[in-house]
């Protein structure tokens, strides 16, 4: 797969389809890959990687790259193409500047799960059937995929590419009952006190590094409200529970109806706060109140918060323990 | 002499300029009372109410926040309250999801002719909040005195 992609990228550079390629390269650690721009065949040969650790969603980088001039080729996994479509719908990127190469994806490994399984000193990863073979400085280790996949991949909502110019590997299908709302439902079934305790436990770990915001393909404002010194949210670790709550409520609200549930926020969180559970709550609410809606599926669709029905549900009827 | 102060809830009411604020006026000129704990903030339209306003009100010490606007279909700007309704529905549902008491937030549609409804709603809401007690889950200690 990686070699196929490398070969195709070199061809695209050579025939002038694009003048740079956006992909992944090895980071400081094998499992810590970073998005990278490749301008020449040499660069691609030297450092391009695609494997079970190539988790980053590259679509957000296109916002900046589109303005730099010249055509860019980009590798997008199925879930990334939803973000891509959403950015198109919001006129954040220009379709004609981008050549999309859809790449098949069978899920990405969660390095924390590998570490929990006692695998250290990771140098490489490859797929063999239903297993990952992880190379480490202590030799190769084999892990079942089901035990190493990231949460978002276990509950993958779609293996189908929503947009592409060409495909490498095959595009799969939308997964109808992905189980991604199971945890949200469990939380909803709790009492408010239990929910409050659960979220205090999670959100109080927030160090306000802003990684969730910076990585989010839906957060593309030039000036973010949280960068405003008058916003009342300081650019530092929150000093009390209110700031934590406010940051996370507003962050999730600002992407409500636009979040494609790509799961990047939870992936990058250094404190492993399950931020996707906030986003999924909004997605679930939108689905149940205003009809099924998947952001990024159809760039022409009106967003749920940008339209209304005369007989919409009243705010008093929403929420858990009304009575 | 009792040292313990009786708990008086602080309530913020966002009222739209065209309906609910006029409704409050009518309540006043009709000599219908509503609790002095209710502090009205006039907004041009219920749609002006940003989710951040609601949170900010709680931060600054409110124990309950109510948003009042024109009845759906009667918006001075045709559709503002329809959008506001969707936003508040999602926000309130999220607050509930985080375990913050659902009863602390409320939306009511009050027209300029409904002085009585304004007074009744505010009395009810103030009683609910007084029963719930102080807002602890969305408080900012720096703003408390």
Description:
The complex is a heterodimer of chains A (323) and B (145). Helices cover 34% and strands 14% of the residues of chain A. Chain A is an alpha/beta fold and 323 residues long. In chain A, the strands form 2 sheets. Chain A has a 5-stranded mixed sheet with strand order 2-1-3-4-8. The relative contact order of chain A is 0.12. The model of chain A has no long low-confidence stretch (mean pLDDT 88). Chain B has one domain: Rossmann fold. Chain B has helices spanning 20-29, 51-59, 80-97, 115-132, and strands at 11-16, 38-43, 64-69, 105-109. Chain B has a 4-stranded parallel sheet with strand order 2-1-3-4, sandwiched between helices. In chain B, α1 (20-29) crosses α4 (115-132). Chain B is globular. In chain B, 54% of the residues are buried. Classes of the chains: A alpha/beta (323), B alpha/beta (145). Chains A and B meet through α9, α11 and α13 of A and α2, α3 and β4 of B.
Strand content of chain A: 5-15%
Write down the oligomeric state.
heterodimer
Strand order of the largest sheet of chain B: 2-1-3-4
| Count of domain modules of chain B | 1
Report, as a whole number of angstroms, the end-to-end distance of chain A: 55 Å
Low-confidence runs of chain B: none
Strand content of chain B: 15-25%
Please tell me how large the radius of gyration of chain A is. 20 Å
Shape designation of chain A? globular
Distance between the termini of chain B: 22 Å
Percent of residues in helices of chain B: 25-40%
Largest sheet of chain A: 5 strands, mixed
Number of E strands of chain B? 4
Just give the CATH class of chain B. Alpha Beta
Tally of individual domains of chain A:
2
CATH topology of chain B: Rossmann fold
């Amino acid at each position: 797969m990686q070699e196929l992609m490398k070969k195709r990228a070199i061809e695209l550079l050579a025939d002038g389809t694009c003048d740079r390629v956006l992909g992944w390269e090895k980071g400081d650690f094998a499992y810590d890959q970073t998005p990278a721009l490749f301008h020449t065949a040499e660069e691609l040969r030297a450092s391009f990687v695609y494997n079970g650790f190539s988790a980053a969603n590259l679509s957000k980088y296109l916002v900046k790259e589109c303005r730099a001039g010249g055509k860019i080729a980009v590798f997008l996994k199925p879930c990334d193409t939803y973000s891509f479509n959403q950015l198109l719908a919001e006129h954040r990127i220009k379709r004609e500047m981008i050549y999309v190469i859809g790449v098949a994806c069978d899920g990405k490994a969660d390095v924390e799960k590998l570490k929990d399984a006692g695998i250290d000193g990771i140098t490489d990863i490859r797929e063999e059937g239903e297993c990952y073979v992880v190379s480490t400085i202590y030799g190769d280790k084999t892990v079942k995929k089901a035990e190493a996949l990231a949460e978002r991949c276990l509950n993958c909502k779609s293996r189908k590419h929503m947009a592409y110019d060409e495909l490498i590997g095959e595009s799969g299908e939308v997964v109808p009952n992905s189980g991604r709302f199971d945890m949200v439902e469990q939380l909803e079934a709790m009492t408010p006190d239990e929910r409050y305790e659960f979220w205090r436990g999670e959100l109080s770990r927030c160090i306000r590094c802003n990684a969730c915001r910076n990585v989010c393909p839906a957060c593309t404002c030039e000036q973010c409200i949280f960068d405003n010194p008058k916003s009342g949210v300081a650019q530092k670790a929150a000093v009390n529970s209110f700031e934590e709550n406010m940051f996370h409520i507003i962050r999730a609200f600002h992407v409500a109806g636009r979040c494609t549930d790509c799961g990047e926020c939870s992936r990058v969180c250094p404190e492993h706060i399950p931020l996707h559970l906030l986003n999924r709550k909004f997605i679930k609410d939108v689905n149940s109140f205003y009809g099924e809606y998947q952001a990024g599926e159809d760039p022409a669709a009106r967003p749920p918060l940008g339209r209304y029905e005369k007989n919409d549900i009243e705010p008093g009827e929403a929420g858990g323990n009304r009575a | 002499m009792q040292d313990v102060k009786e708990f008086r809830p602080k309530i913020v009411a966002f009222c739209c300029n065209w309906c609910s604020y006029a409704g409050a006026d009518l309540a006043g000129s009709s000599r219908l009372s509503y609790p002095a704990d209710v502090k009205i903030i006039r907004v041009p339209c219920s749609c002006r109410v940003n989710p951040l306003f609601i949170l900010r009100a709680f931060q600054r010490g409110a124990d309950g926040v109510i948003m009042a606007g024109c009845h759906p279909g009667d918006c001075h700007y045709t559709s503002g309250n329809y959008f506001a309704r969707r936003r508040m529905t999602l926000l309130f549902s999220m607050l509930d999801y985080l375990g913050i008491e659902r009863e602390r937030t409320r939306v009511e549609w009050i027209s300029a002719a409904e002085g009585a409804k304004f007074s009744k709603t505010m009395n009810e809401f103030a009683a609910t909040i007084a029963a719930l007690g102080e807002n602890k889950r969305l408080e900012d200690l720096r703003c408390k005195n």
